[in-house]
Amino acid sequence: MDLRPSAPTEELTPTPQPVAAAVLSGEVHATDAPRPLSVFDMFRVGIGPSSSHTVGPMRAGLAFTTELASLPTPSRLHIDLFGSLGATGRGHNTDRAVLLGLAGFSPESVSIDTVESLLPGVARSGHLPLPGAASVPFDLTTDIRFLPGTVLPYHVNALTISAWVEGSPGEAPALVRTYYSVGGGFVMAQVNDDTDNPQVEALASASEAVIPQKDAPFPFASSDALLAQCDASGLSVAQLVRANELSLRSEVELDAYLDQIANTMFDCVDAGVGTSGILPGGLDVPRRAGTLARKLAERARVGAPSGSLQWAATAHDPMRAMDWVNLFALAVNEENAAGHRIVTAPTNGAAGVIPAVLGYLVSYCPEAGASDSAFVPSPESPMAPFQLDPSDLRECAQARRRVVHDFVLAATAIGALIKTNASIAGAEVGCQGEVGSASAMAAAGLAQALGGTPQQVENAAEIAMEHSLGLTCDPVAGLVQIPCIERNAIAAVKAINAARMALWGDGRHTVSLDVAIETMRQTGIDMLSKYKETSAGGLAVNVVEC
């Protein structure tokens, strides 16, 4: 069986849509796209707990209310959540996300206070505020329907929003739109009325919509093409992705965005460590990151008490860094589970993997300016010392900023390949597409930051991806808590191991990243739907909810 990415079977018509939107909508095949997905596409600041079930529906709601502004104030709104959005929408706060979008808020900038106060406000007042001074009557029990048994043909994550206006003819709504949340916060809008044969366009992000599109100097749609471009140009993976980015944007704009992404990740770790209590949702899952940080720091400072594992996390423990990597991932995913601000990397459910591996890089690797292998991060704010500040001209700060940027750029290349050749959506391919993709991206980023060749970077990603194949998405009670939080920690450690394995080799290996990605895609197609973010199988039905 040929597992290489397939070429299009027919010529595809050029489209005026921005490149990312055109590729995602199927208007342009990835092999014909003038440029790969950008770091601005693959990494987005948003809110938890899910990119496909929270961020995407919020963007859909915002698109609908923007279009609604040209009509009179509606007298009624109705929302239908289909398929996976209907099955796990309550646990993922999909209802709240759509309403936040309809109220005019975006996932990049909405305040956490607004996120947490909207639903109680609507329940209390019986009205949903719209942008400006308008509001519409809204009943949370009847105006949102969860319909897990109805799966629309285009994608399992679908929602329809309808608006009625006083005085409109008959009972028909004045505006109806169907949207598909396809993973990573990407949203497709249906542009015809036939749900059996939908025609869709992708909602372009604000940054994508205003950037004139040009051909990338080094386009690639497969890992083979990426390596060929690196060989021909003499560039590393990170350098090649940077060159593609700079063909659209200034170096100042690119570096500022890379700083923002890394600093938001570091802030998220610190926020998770600094918060205690029980995560919302009803499973009574306690936050562990803060307690673990204090335990690890205390052991490093005074040693271990008597009992088992007396040496663990002390200076005598050669694996002590792994405990902090676990901590970084737990902290981020606890913040995500609470619905707080994270970076979609490439999804919310997998948001802890890349920050955890970045934490390992800046805390322990000399390439990022770390000079003491016995370093113990602060138990109160472990990532605060590593914020990227372009005004900090110290050599160690500049080294850290440089390798962190390279890490994110190399990870972007891998995420783009997975997104365009398979999927990053748990509802499409299971958790192999979420945590598996994040692990592959993190492995590639770390291998790049530690000086790996393009072949070693590709090998690191392939190792992490290959050993995530078949991973199911089975969140207990539809919440991104069990097994998601710990799964991110395991995937982060896997990514570090994959990078180290690749760096000990010369880049030659039997299974290519292209083959691993295509295998993941095929495995996702064959996977039963109950293992694809429906909470209808696996741990979701075998763990008793207390």
Would you write up a description of this structure?
It is a single chain. 46% of the residues lie in helices and 9% in strands. The strands form three sheets. A six-stranded mixed beta sheet has the order 5-2-6-7-8-9. It has 546 residues and is of the alpha+beta class. The chain is built from 20 helices and ten strands.
List the helices and strands and how they pair.
Elements: H1 19-25, H2 39-42, E1 44-47, H3 51-68, E2 76-82, H4 83-88, H5 94-102, H6 112-125, E3 127-129, E4 135-137, E5 144-147, E6 157-164, E7 175-183, E8 186-190, E9 200-202, H7 206-210, H8 223-233, H9 237-246, H10 251-273, H11 289-302, H12 320-337, E10 341-344, H13 353-364, H14 395-421, H15 426-429, H16 435-449, H17 454-466, H18 484-504, H19 513-526, H20 539-542
